[in-house]
Amino acid sequence: MRRLLSRLLEACGVVTLRRYQFAITQLEREVTKIQASSKAQLEQQVNESRAQSKTLKTEIADAAKALKSKERELFKQSRRVDKLRKRVEQSDRHRADLESLLKRLIEAEQELAAARNHLMVVEVKLDILEGAANVLDARTRTTTAQQSGAPV
Amino acid sequence: MPARAPPLRSSPVPQSEHGVTSGARSTAQPLISIVLTGRNDGYGGDFIARFHRTLSFNHRQLVARQIAHEILFVEWAPPGNAPYLFDLTRRALADIDWGVVSWYIVDPRYHAALSLNPRLEYLEFLAKNVAVRRARGRFVLTTNCDVYMGRHVLDVMGARSLRPAIVYRAPRFDIKFAADYSSLDWDVLEDPRNLEGAPKQLKPPFMGGGTGDFVLLDRPSFHEIRGFNEVYRAARFGIDHNVLVKALSSGLAIEDIGGPVYHINHVGSYRLTADVYAGREAEAPWGDSRWHSRGVVYSNPDTWGLAKAPTRESAERCWHLDFSWDAVPPLVDLKRVVLPAARAGGPAPGRYVSK
Question: What is the mean pLDDT of residues B39-66?
Fold first, then answer.
């Protein structure tokens, strides 16, 4: 009877004091538990954030260092580029000079070949003239000797 | 030496339309005109025996292959104290068909009038021009009296595969001097053990080397270039190569015919005696070998080949070219020495070689 009455009261939202106190105690215990748990989580998150922050700071420092190094490298390379550009310009000038020299050399070779060709012709003609002079000299001597009666 | 027999006949022979007498009897045009020159002067020790052996051999081979040919022989400036080579040959080679032979005896005064070098004993290429000018064949082969045609050369002629506007050249294989060649046949010629040195190969573009032993060209082209150089008459050496320079300069091609001709070394061969005149080249009987035969060319006068020489028939198949100043070109005609023309894709026209 008592149990039945108790269930009817429970159905109407009325509990015994003992149960009410037990429930309150349970509630407080859970709240405490939840609060403890949240605090640990928050602490862990804070710690993680700190660690991440530290890592990021290190990375930023490294990046800054690298940036400085790259800037120095860029400076060096730009100086090299300038030097190379100057050398390329010099080379271009030299190439133009060489091309000009080569052209002059080819022309000189052609002129030399032409001169040699003409020299060949002149030498052959001189051979002919020399031969003719010798032949005419011999004929003249023979004729003169025959006319004068002297031995040929 | 026995006294020279007088000419058998002495009758003027009518001149052809070119002013040149052709000794040909037959009207049929031969395929090949073979041009030879020599005289009875004992050249090389036993010239006559070597010549007769060679002529018999070549004629026999040509007949065997039914190659229509004529033989034009120029007996250049024969010595006065010896019988004509014509008479000796006519007697010795009775087996040859003399109907295909035309023999020209050139008055010695031509040599004296033409030579620009008293040391020159023989104006070989002027002599050859006499025959080239009078040849009737479709092709003209200028060669020498001791050169045997090779089997391949004969085969090409026999196949009638020669083409115009091409100078055909053949390498010369020298046969050892010491061997006994009284009974010469293919076995002797083609035996590599009889060769003097390694077989020669002709090198383009000129295909030179022993050129005087084999120059084969169609007659119109040979006449167009007017034969061998008659302007430079101070040397015999190099005139043969000079015709190759002239040919290329004139737009003709030069080809190796593909097989050799054979030459038997003898006393006085240029090959054996060239070194004798080292350092005194100008004294050589073939002239100074250093003249610019590879660098200049010539333009022979219209009268090349002694075209205006009076000709009389002194015997059957034998004509004398009597002396006349009309036939002699000027002693000096410098405008006829010219530079060869450079042709596109062709070799350089000349190369200067200092003396």
Answer: 91
Nearest-Cα residue of chain A relative to residue B288: A127
What would the pLDDT profile of A136-148 be if each residue is shown by its tens digit? 999 999 899 988 8
B180 in a structural domain: yes
Return the beta strands (E) in chain B as ranges. Answer: 11-12, 32-38, 69-76, 101-106, 139-142, 147-149, 166-169, 172-175, 215-218, 253-256, 261-264, 297-298, 311-315, 318-321, 337-338
* pLDDT score of A149 more than 90: no
Rounded to 10 deg, the angle between the B151-158 and B47-64 helix axes is 40
| Chain A residues whose beta carbon lies within 8 Å of the beta carbon of residue B233 | 128, 131
* Structure token digits, residue B52: 């007769």
Using the Cβ of B298 and the Cβ atoms of chain A, whether some distance falls under 8 Å is answered with no
Residues 75-134 (A) with a CB less than 8 A from some CB of B: 116-121, 123-125, 127-132, 134
Task: Give ∠ CA B71-B74-B79 in degrees, rounded to 5.
Answer: 145
Q: Flag whether pLDDT at A33 surpasses 80.
A: yes
Q: Which of A78-82, A115-119, B38-42, B285-289 has the lowest mean pLDDT?
A: B285-289
From residue B47, alpha-carbon distances to B88, B91, B150, B269, B345 in Å are 12, 16, 21, 11, 43
CATH number of the domain residue B164 falls in: 3.90.550.10
- Domain count along chain B: 1
| Chain B residue with minimum CA distance to A126 | B334
Q: Would you state the pLDDT for residue B21? A: 53
Strand positions, DSSP E, B269-354: 297-298, 311-315, 318-321, 337-338
Segments forming the whole domain that contains residue B31:
11-327
CB contact under 8 A, B234 and A128: yes
At B152-163, the pLDDT tens digits run: 999 999 999 999
Displacement of CA B243 from its chain's centroid (Å): 12
**Distance (Å, whole) CA B305 – CA B307:** 5
Per-residue pLDDT tens digits for B103-147? 999 999 999 999 999 999 899 999 999 999 999 999 999 999 999
Facing A135 at nearest CB: one of B116, B291, B334: B116
Starting at the edge strand found earlier in the chain, the sheet holding B311-315 runs B11-12, B311-315, B318-321, B101-106, B69-76, B32-38, B139-142, B215-218, B166-169, B253-256
Long-range contacts of A65-69 (CB under 8 A, 24+ apart): none
Cα-trace Rg, chain B:
19
The answer to the question of residue B58 being in a domain is yes
Please report which confidence band the pLDDT of residue B235 belongs to, taking 50, 70 and 90 as the band edges. Answer: very high
